[in-house]
Amino acid sequence: MTDIETGSPETTALQQLLDNHFPSLESLSMVDDLLRGEEETNSLLEEELRAAQTRKAELEKEASEIAERIRAESLALIDIHSGIVGGSVDDSVSAWQFRDGTETMELVSKLAAELKTYERLQQSKDYVDIVVDVEETVEQAKVNISKNPQSVLAACTHAIEILAKHLATPDLDRSIVNKPSHLCTYIKQSVQSMWEQVEMAAGVSQSESLAKLGWPGKMDMSSTSTVVDFDSSFSMLLNLDRIMRGAQTILDQSDIDLCKGRFSPLPLEYMARAVDIRMRYHFESSRNTNRADKPEWWLSQILTTLRNIVPFLEAHVQWLYDATATEHLDIRNQFILLLLPIVRRKLLHDRPEYLGSGMIVSSVVRELSDFEHTLQEVYFFDGPSVLDEFLSDSTVFAAWVEAERTSAMKAYMDTVAEPGAFDPVYSDDVLGADDARPSRVSEKAVLLVEDIAERYAMVPSCMLKLQILSTAQFPIIIALVEDVEAEIDEFSRISLPFIRDSTVISPVASANATALQSSFIMQLERLASWYQTVWHVEEAARDWNNSAIYVDMWAAVCRRAQKLGSGTDPRDWRDGCDRWTAEDQTVLDQEQPDLASVTDNDDWLDGGIWERTIRTLGDLKKRILDLVSRAVNKEVVGQMRPYRKKNNWAVSSTDGADGHGRDVNISSEMGSVLPELSVLVVSLSTMLSYGAFVRLIRLLADELDTFMADRVACAHRFDMRGGLQFVADVSAISRVLFASASRNALSSVPQRSLVKAQECGSILSCAADSTSSPNVGSGAAMSLSLEEWGPTIMDTTVDDREALLVLAKLGVSHLTVKQVRQLVGNRSDFAYNSVSDSA
């Protein structure tokens, strides 16, 4: 405390130190840390000092040994000198004064100092020589740049030699290590600047001469002087390119880039610049021609340019190149390679537009495909595919696929939402009777699928095609199937239960019957429109399945399934197509001559990309047809209820017949039913295809056959006349069902229709005894009377097999013995009295 109060210098310094480093009381806690750090630093310095002292001692020892060695050699030289001059006692020897070695070290030190000075002077001279050499080379090129091309080329060659001598030594002891960095930088900058000036001058000269010739438009070769100027500048650039590429190793070791990423000869690079400038001006600036949605504008411009300049390239430039070059090069093909970066840059320039409006991509793909096809077929170009590079951009491709899906689904949904979406597009007389008649929605769905396929048909990658197919096309068909199924479900739930299940036909009710019939026909037309919709799409899918584009896709998925193993079904390809890898793409895009070379599996050979779609549509079509059959059968059976309730089959009647029962006409009840049935059959024949119509009529015939046999013939009592009328009614139904004017091909089918009802009519119209005979025109076929064969059938003790044999001889083969016995029992004019009759 006393020292601090006295204000001594040490105290003042200490106080300043504390004030500067420890301004507060809390900061004094850092003193210990500071002291420890200083102690560590002091310890390290002491270790370094000890190491330095050790090294110093080693060097002093080494220097002492060297000095002793020099002294010994000096004394040896003195002894030799003394022997030469005549003796060791010569007075001149004392002038060396080397015996004690004192002046030896001084002499060596002086000589060493002089040697270093000389070395510095020599190095300075070498640097000056290098600078002078570089300056003279640059000046030589600058002076002769427009006068003497050969001198300029010689200067460029010498510049490469300077680089090789002073900068491009590959080993660790290269001379660049011994030169200051500023000298190395000076050499590189001077050589590069000189080269750029020479190249630029030659390039400008070539561009000016080309512009005079009309480049890059139609070439005018009439000016000989201009052609000579072009030839001179072309050769100059070509020689520069040859020197540059021949010295590429030296340039790389010298860290100099004269190629600047160029892969083609210099004269071609400069020739392509004019095309590049024109393309940038028109298609990458703010001009109206710069439109991303018009790829055909700029691609056609490139093709037009090629059409104008290719003759000049092939006839003149190729000859000029071959005359001076050592290796052959296809100038036309190489120049097209120089134009591809223009295409790539334009695609990259418009990429934001593609991402914002994916449908533009389809136009770009189409135009790029046509562009590359022209290059390959017209100009025999064998370079890389820009289209493949463009589609390898997964983001752009995804934007396209999503735009296709969104656009197609919107167009489909808009069509479905329109009134009459399932109405036929064409009238009945436009298409044949057996042709699918498209509805608006089916035609729209087919067109959407085909339009998408047309847009991606030129995509080279099969994997990308399959992804578009899965993402954009299949959903359209799926949506159509779901919409039709929804309509069917609604019809089954609401409309079908309310189809009339009873009909009372009378003159008073004819208007109501006509209204009901009209309403039912409308319901059938609704069902038929769904059937025609599905049928049209199914027929289109069958055509797609056999088209070349989808056959190739099927071969690809079969090839992939075969590679994955025998347990893989190619029809399951959609399950993981969104996770396909590069390996999958290689397999899918592999070229195959035909499907048979892919696999021997017959199921695969018979299948196809649309196989499951066709099966789904076929099942849906069958479901609709079954629904139509149910509705028709229910409607017709409902109309036949009054006929079923007819109970005057065994009562004498005068319906169009004489007293002997000849010329029996149809019953009045049947006469009321047949007109509506005829209208229904004709309507069905125009609504449906031939096969569907035949199937429906046969199902309806089976339904009516069962109805006439079980609900009419077996349910009422008949006499022979009633049986004849029943036969007439059955024949009338057959004629209506199978002899429609629009289906003449079925006119020979009635013999096969209503077979059970016809056999019932044969039994019911059979003569009771030999004294009575049926009407010849009635259609009855039995030659025996009931009296002759009835007892045998009615006898319950007779075995059924024996009874069936008897019936077979009578032409009855579709009725059971029980039904025949019931029919015979229903004959009111035939009495069979036996014990078993009650049975």
Automatic annotation (TrEMBL):
Protein name: RAD50-interacting protein 1
Origin: domain of life: Eukaryota
Organism, as annotated: Coemansia erecta
Record GO biological process: endoplasmic reticulum to Golgi vesicle-mediated transport; regulation of ER to Golgi vesicle-mediated transport; retrograde vesicle-mediated transport, Golgi to endoplasmic reticulum
InterPro entries documented for this protein: EXOC6PINT-1/Sec15/Tip20_C_dom2, RINT1_Tip20
Keyword line: Coiled coil
Pfam families: RINT1_TIP1
GO CC terms of this entry: Dsl1/NZR complex
Parts forming coiled coils: 35-76
